[in-house]
Amino acid sequence: MLLQIHNAARYIVCVPYVEQHGRPKPKDPWSFRRYAVYQHYSQSTRTSSWILIQPREETRQCLETGKISLGSRSLWASFYTHLRIIKSSSRSWRWFLNYLSDELDQIRVKVICQTDPTKSQGSDEICFMQSQTLEIIQAKARRASSAIAATTMIIQTIDQHLDRLSSMQKRFEPMSGSNDGRDFLHDELQQFSNHLTIHARKARDIIEETASINMLIQRTLDLRNALTLHTSNTSLRAISASAAIESTSMLHLTALSLHDARIMKIASIIALMYLPAGLVSSIFSTELVSLTPVRLDLWKGVVVFFMLLGILTTATVCVAVLWIKRDRKAGVVNKAVAAAPSKRQQGSGENCSAA
């Protein structure tokens, strides 16, 4: 920015650039920096006062060795000094963009190429961290593009001021034929602007390539998630089918168990019916009963046998039936007692709600 005040001119410029920081951390060796230059040019004394804020180390060395001179006697010559300073700080754009391009190529190879030659699908090394790395590369490329655009604007501003000085000189000194190297400075500015345009185009290409690779990664991750969900659903269906088959088998086993229980119940009832007969037989087999006349005593013994058999069988069956009925009544009473607290709780809840 150029400010003209009476016989003085002030030129203020702030140039962003990149430079290797030389530290072991972070892993990225490049860092974005900026410096500022303030120049006050006095038309009466034809001298300039310079203030450089955070200049590059290379710029300091050039100033100390005299490669860049600040003792310009004219305003347009000071523009050449500005150009030298800006060019010295803009040399790293090429290497920085090459660094971003190499990082992008490494990710592209991992995403597109398959390490296993037997597989025809995409790479297995795709992960979300690569997408994050691409976002970082894209952010750096955008920042570089903005910085290069700002530097290009500064160069264009210097060129415009140089043209303005040339027109003013032609107006006030029409007979002056020499331009004191202004055409050379104009060519230098144009050439440097073309270099910056090339760097800006490369930065835009990196941004576009990063976006395309990031889209490919996102689609690959979405496809992988869909395949995982499909596999999970297939596994769940298989598990559900196995559970259904197992439930059917359990029902079949339960039916068989009920059938066996029914058979055992019938066998138990039959055995229960024969228990009194066995008891009577054991009584008649003892010495308590004596049969002297075979015919009469045998008949009496058979009558007594069947009489006792009927009485004991009837008593056994009656006791069993009464016992079963008692168990059923006890089960019903227990269910009623267990259900009573829940009914009382429901009734209290209804009373509370009514209140």
From TrEMBL:
Coiled coil: none annotated. InterPro entries: CorA-like_dom (IPR058257). The chain crosses the membrane at residues 266-284, 304-324. Keywords: Membrane, Transmembrane, Transmembrane helix. It comes from the Eukaryota. The keyword Cell inner membrane does not apply. Gene3D superfamilies: Magnesium transport protein CorA, transmembrane region (1.20.58.340). Residues 23-110 form the CorA-like transporter domain. This is CorA-like transporter domain-containing protein.
